Structures are given as structure tokens and as C-alpha cells.
Amino acid sequence: MLAGAGTGKTRAITHRIAYGVHSGVYTPQRLLAVTFTARAAAEMRSRLRDLGAGNVQARTFHAAALRQLQFFWPQAVGGSLPNLLDHKAQMLAEAARRLRLSTDRASIRDLASEIEWAKVSMLTPANYLENAQGRGTPGGFDLTAVARVFQAYEDVKTDRNVIDFEDVLLITVGILQEDERVAATVREQYRHFVVDEYQDVSPLQQRLLDLWLGGRDELCVVGDASQTIYSFTGASPRHLLDFKARYPQASVVKLIRDYRSTPQVVKLANDLLAARRSGGPAADAAWATPLQLVAQRPAGPVPTFTECADDEAEAATVAQKIKALIDAGTPASEVAILFRTNGQSEAYEQALAAAGIGYQLRGGERFFARKEVRDAILQLRAATRAASEADAPEPLGQLVRDIVASLGYTDSAPHSGGALRERWESLAALVALADELVQNRGPQFGLVDFVNELQERSLAQHAPTVQGVTLASLHAAKGLEWDAVFLVGLSEGLMPISFADSPESVDEERRLLYVGITRAREHLALSWSTARTPGGRANRKPSRFLDGLRPASVASSSTRGKGPAPRRKAAAPAVCRVCGSMLATGAERKVGRCNACPPGYEEQTFDALRNWRRSVAVSADIPAFVVFTDATLTAIAEARPASLEELAGLAGWALRSWRNTGKTCSGSWPKAPPCEPRSRGREPAGSCAPDHHRGGRAGGGTPFRPPYPHRGGFLGERDSRRRHSGPVHGSPGVRVGPAHAGQAAAAGGAARGFRPEATRLGRRTCRPRHPPLGTLPGRARRPNVRKVGEQPELAVGFSNTRGRNHPALGQTPSHAAVGHRLCPAARACPSAGGRAQCSVLEAA
């Protein structure tokens, strides 16, 4: 069965099996349906159960082999089955140490992938070297060293009495080959086989399937060679393409009617595959003629192509589009952001969080491993024991709602984000699942049935739908679908990936993009950026796969800064300060440690910093990540800087730019008469006031503007591209860098009693100094000012002024309302009398 994307192959498989069971052709206990993921197997079992064929076994290759291995091990081998190894990293690291090889996390990961490929290709350490020629240098090691690590890894496993997942298949194959009694028993148990996603079968899995069949031809396979995306695991589409040659009597059925996507999406998918050019004899032999899909749905929106200035701008643009879709009625759970590598997710997590949009990271913490889900299942199980048969039956949905209410569930979603929202979404998914099961299986489906269903789903990791935008890699998205899909990062080097250095690997990258496109039902957006970071060199090009698909001219979604971008020095390799492993992502490099190592900050300090960031973002009406990223807050909480200089080393370019460019951009700082200490009362018009009261020009200089408008970052690390647009007085303004930098340093250092001194920018002063604002980043327009005497006054930056307490206007000063409440230096300011308190310090 050759089934294109969206053609309903799962429905075809399950209805074919159910029809065979009900017509007597199949005995349910004698049929084994095999698929590649636990989620797909659980979905197949659920559909078969709804069709009245619940006794049919639907498992993954590994699950079916492990079940047989557990049953036959005592009689075929003797003793107890070794423990199953979840991850190879620890054993591989020990194997490398035995050989005195230096490794890091990245090289261990590459070695693990290489050994997995060798084992599913049925290679051993002895014959690996001769069969692995041309595979490069996995983990930075030559193939001879890899073979030695392979052997050492097998020795470590033997010493520890453990086996890995590849061993499960290998040992099962060995037992079936060597013990005819075991093989006969298995073949008697299973007489009919159905294999889904057959294009991803590895040589080892094909060998196991052949042994299960034992020469019979009671086999139905389903696949699409255009969706072969797992060749790095040893998968090969040749098994699908050569199926007719192996089984000449086989019937071939093609499913080409696409019931999932709109004609616009289907056309783009077809055009992508049709645009492939010859890659040479070897690549052409491996490339299968694609199925030409025919859309069955009504016309929909045309896919969009967007070019952005940098990765952050791309993430912000995608978040804005998603918010518009959700506001228009699209559920958040029906939206997905798909990327090539997992490292791309961080920017989108922050952009969605800043926009107040819930999300789930596919491949992150498993649903049934979450604490709130485990607690809910315990409560539900306890309720089944406490229930009396005499109790009046209550609808399952309402009963589940009542039980999980004690864990924080409410009928309406909380307005806040973060952990509270994630907890609610997990509980809401359980409630929605209860309603769905009652609808599908009838009102007799009760609490005991629901608990049993959750137990089965937990074992299979078949999680219910969580109400949030899905973030997933293109590989993890295989087999899933959404109403709206955003394909991001479609630039050369990411799509195709930089290490796709052969025609065959580039073809697989094209198929991977095809898989991403065909995940969309209605809305499809493709985007890329020309630079990695704001202000970085715009040397990225759109993916070659988009040639001929996108419009000739795609407007940029954001304005790039004029002039050449500053050259950046190549960063030295960063290592974790705790374990010494290489740091792979920008967030890890910012914090100075890898994600696997425990954080070194106090929760109270981090919460104070986060609350401060939230207050700044709400006051300035900007996303929270524009102020500081989570990684920067973590770095501040761990380092607890004692000065603005230390904070600038953590917070990046923006904080340093205010101090280093104050004079050169603004001219000379104006002189002012000395201040006289006073706590309250009127200040004379000539008294010293902070520089931010003195207007947009200082000493006749030009309006203040950071040297690179496109990355001016007046609120931290990122340019929010906003300016003060309200009246001079009476409107919350944008609070500027140094004051907030001091607050951040204060929040980080308050735990050890740090009291920041007055900020000194440009000239000696007894008051905290801020750069005169003039024109804010990215704008050439002079701000609104109001003249008092000869000196223009600028009232911007104080969310609590509301037109009151301006000392130069002869009103009563209140330092808690005129900026000093927001400035940690207020404690040291003589005009404040030492009594003004910084809200962030109080919170910390």
C-alpha cells in the first residue's frame, strides 16, 4: 500500500484489519500490527478497539521483540534477562575512559548514533571497519578508534549485565535463527502481519520480520518512499521499493487522495518534490518517483514566505502571527512551529511566553512524568477505591473535574503564564480526554475504565492533547498534523543542514521539508532570517529548496540597520564550569554550565529578578524577553553581581554602551550647581536634578542615540523598537537602561546585603545620572519636550509621575514617584534623604 501524506493510511489500515476480523479472515490474537513509535501503536490500538477489534496486537518492533525475549529467555538462554539500558551515554563515556580517549557530550552523542547505525546494520566491532568506509569521523574520531570504542562499549555492557535497545532486536533474531522450537512457537502465535511506515525499516528489523514470517506471505506493508527521513538510523526505502520484486504475487494499492491539506498546501508539497534535480546515478537510484497527491479539501489560504532580519525578529514575527490566528479562533493546540534542530526552539519559547501563548515542547518532559499528572492519577485511583456501588453514578467528565480541582484545575484557564499555566494545561488535558472517551465509548465508560486507560497510555506514552502551541523538530513531527504550521529557519546551513554533503543526504533533507509541509491542514507559513543575531552579518541565504516555490521578491518583515554590521570575533569554545563538557547552545554559554548540571542560585533570588522583569515589561508594554532573557536572569542569579560593571559582563552590549558612549554621542554633560541634602519640600528651580530631566540635548550636543540603532537595546539586551509616544507628563514612559541595570544588580546582590551606589555616567555628580534621552533607538524624531526657562525638560521614564512632583516645575518632589523609586541608587541620593526604597530590593 503506497500511501501519500494525508491520504488516510491509518484509517485504511485499521478498517482493513477490523473488516478482516469481523469477516472471519483474521483471528484477532493471530495478527500482529507493527509500527515505529509507541504513540502510533497506541493510536492504532485505540482505533481498533473502537472498531470492535480490540484483541489485535499493535506494537513497535522493539516492544514486540522485548515481549518475546522476556518469554523465551529462560528456556533459550537460561537465567534472568539482563536489565535494559535507557541511554548509552554513561556506558560510552566509561568505554572511552578505558581507552583514554577525551570526549565531550557532543562526541558521545555522535558515537552513540554511529554505534546504533552499526548495530541495526547488523555489524559487529570486528567487521565494522571494513563496512563503514566513507562515513567520515563520528565524534571527531577516525573509524579505527570508533571500532575500539564499539568493542569497549560492548565489554562495559557485559560487565554491567545490561543490554540496549538494539540488543533486544539482535538477541531476538539470534534466538529465532538458532532455536527452531522458539521460531515455530512464534509463527504459530502470529500468522498475519501488518507493518506501517515500511519505508523506515532497517536491515535488522527486516531480518526480524522475515524470521517472524518464516517464508509465508501473509503480509501487508504501508509506506511512502517520499517520507524516508531516518536513513541516519539505518533505514532504507529499498525494502518498500523492492517489495514487488520479492513478492511477485503482491497487489499494489496507491492512496493519492489527500484529505488533510488544502489544494494550496498540496501543490506546494508536490512542487517541492518535482523540483528535485539529478544528483548522479547513486542518488537517482535511491530516489523514488513521488506520488502525485490530489487535494480533496476546499481551497484555503496561500502559503506565506517571510524573510526576517535575524532569528529573534523571526521568532517575534511568528509569535505575532500565531496570536492573530488564536484571536481569530484557531485553538492553540492546532498550531505548530517546526524546526530542523532542537537548538532552534529557545527563541520561539521566549517569544511565545512573552506573547502570553502557552506551548508544549515535543521531546521535552513526558506528559505522564509530570508531577501534576502523576498526582492526578493517584487521586483518581484513590477515588475508585473509595467509591461505593450504592453511590449514584455521576458523569465521568464532571467526576474527573471534581477530583482534579484539588490540584488546581478550574474551568477557565489562568491569566498568568509559566508553571501555573503549564500545570493547568496538563490537568485540562486529562479532563478533555475523559470527555472524549465518554463520547467515543458511551456513557457506561466509568472512572475505573478511565484509570485503566490512563495506565495503559502511560505505559505506551500515548499522551492526550495539551492546549498549547507545539514546538517540535521536523523529525518529531512525523505522523502528526495541525491546522496551522510554521516552518522556521529555512536558510542554507539549516535546510539542508550543513553536514548534508552528499546528493543522497540532500535528497533526504528535501524529503524532510516535504514532511513538514504536509503536516499543515490549512495555514502554512515558511520563514527564514538573513542573520543569526541582531546586528550580525546578514550573510544567510534562503534554502535552495525554496527556489521556484517562493515569490521572486519576498518583503522583509523587519527593517535592517543601514551600513555594514560590526565584525565579531570568533568565540572561544565554551565548557561547563561544573562538569567541563562543551556548551552547545547560546543559553548554556550565557549561564556557563550545561543543562544537565544543577543550577547554582536560590529560588528566592531568581523569583525576585523575574518579578522585576515582569514589572518592567508590563510598565513599558513590551515582551519580557526584551528586557532580559531567562538565560540572562539565571546568569545574574548565579553570579549575583556587586556592581554595574559586573552586571554588564553578564547582560551584554546594551549596558556597556550607555557608559561607554554617553559623552561621544551626547557631547559634554551639562554642569549643575551642587545639591543640598533635603528629604522633602520644594526644590529651587536651579537645584540639581537627574540628567534625564534635562531634555533631549545636553550642552548643545546632538540628540542621544546609541551607535547602532538596530541594536540599541535601551531596556537590556534587545531593541524593542518602541519609543515614548505619550504626552510629556501624565503617561507611563519607557524606563531606561542604567536604572534598571542597577535594579537587576540589586536583585541579584540583595541576598548578601549589596547596596548599589549612585550611578556615575559622564561626569561627577551627587545624584544618579542617566543619559539624556533625546531620540530613542531606531528613531530620528526628537521627543516631545516642555521648556522651563531656557532648559528643555523631558519627562520620560517614570511610570508613576503622572504629571506630578517634577522638581524643575516647582512641584513637591517625591523620589519614590520621580524616578528614584525605580532607581536603586535612591538609597545613596542625598536628595532622597536615604528613605526612598527600590521596589526590586524590597521584593528580593
Secondary structure layout plus pairing:
Layout: E1 2-3, H1 9-22, E2 31-35, H2 38-50, E3 57-60, H3 61-76, E4 83-84, H4 89-98, H5 105-120, H6 128-131, H7 143-160, E5 162-163, H8 165-178, H9 180-189, E6 192-195, H10 203-213, E7 219-221, H11 238-241, H12 243-246, E8 254-255, E9 257-258, H13 263-274, H14 281-286, E10 294-295, E11 304-308, H15 311-327, E12 335-339, H16 345-354, E13 359-361, H17 371-386, H18 396-404, H19 418-441, H20 447-460, E14 469-473, E15 482-487, H21 503-517, E16 520-529, H22 586-591, H23 603-620, H24 624-627, H25 630-639, H26 644-651, H27 653-666, H28 737-749, E17 786-788, E18 791-793, H29 839-843
Parallel strand pairs: 1-8, 2-3, 2-6, 4-5, 6-7, 9-10, 11-16, 12-14, 12-15, 13-14, 15-16
Antiparallel strand pairs: 17-18
Helix pairs in contact: 3-8, 4-7, 8-9, 8-10, 13-21, 15-16, 17-20, 18-19, 23-25, 23-28, 25-28, 26-27, 26-28
